[in-house]
Amino acid sequence: xxxxxxxxxxxxxxxxxxxxxxxxxxxxxxxxxxxxxxxxxxxxxxxxxxxxxxxxxxxxxxxxxxxxxxxxxxxxxxxxxxxxxxxxxxxxxxxxxxxxxxxxxxxxxxxxxxxxxxxxxxxxxxxxxxxxxxxxxxxxxxxxxxxxxxxxxxxxxxxxxxxxxxxxxxxxxx
Length: 174
Ligand code: IMP
Ligand code: MG
Description:
Helix 1 (13-30) crosses helix 2. This protein has one domain: Rossmann fold. The protein is of the alpha/beta class. 22% of the residues lie in helices and 30% in strands. A six-stranded mixed β-sheet has the order 4-3-2-5-6-7, sandwiched between helices. Helix 3 links the parallel strand 5 (92-100) and strand 6 (120-128). Bound molecules: inosinic acid and magnesium ion. Magnesium ion (MG) is lined by residues 39, 42, 65, 97-98.
């Protein structure tokens, strides 16, 4: 099966920036947090744009999600490289990912943060694909709800391709 990029973006760069400005305002009002934790690699552009619309005093860190024992999607066993260096004890944490799909990644990350003594852990995702959920997880802040499509661009990849596209496209069978 070969895949090709959709002709038109699913989400234009301008629409993404507008939505991020609204999200940043919502987060600022509803959840004063001590530390933002981005999930690499997919969330790197989203985090960069979101933090520049937030309180400039905000602290920022990244962890890298690594899934074991499964192929192209995540599964129950997700580990987070870099988490051992993070001090989350007694902090209000906001975890940020590019997309919420099966829910395994953010479900696992939230539990790890809680086990390490965070006061509270909330989450923010740019995209949400609720139809794909396997783990019981809902994000507190979400940019766009999308159908069961494979999204690329704006940080999201397919086999490490397409991350640098400024808009979000879908991959379709040729
Ligand atoms: P989850 O653990 O299944 O919720 O998956 C989250 C991770 O899977 C995301 O951080 C992405 O890296 C990857 N992912 C899921 N759906 C897509 C997609 O449509 N495009 C690109 N990456 C995706
Ligand atoms: Mg990811």
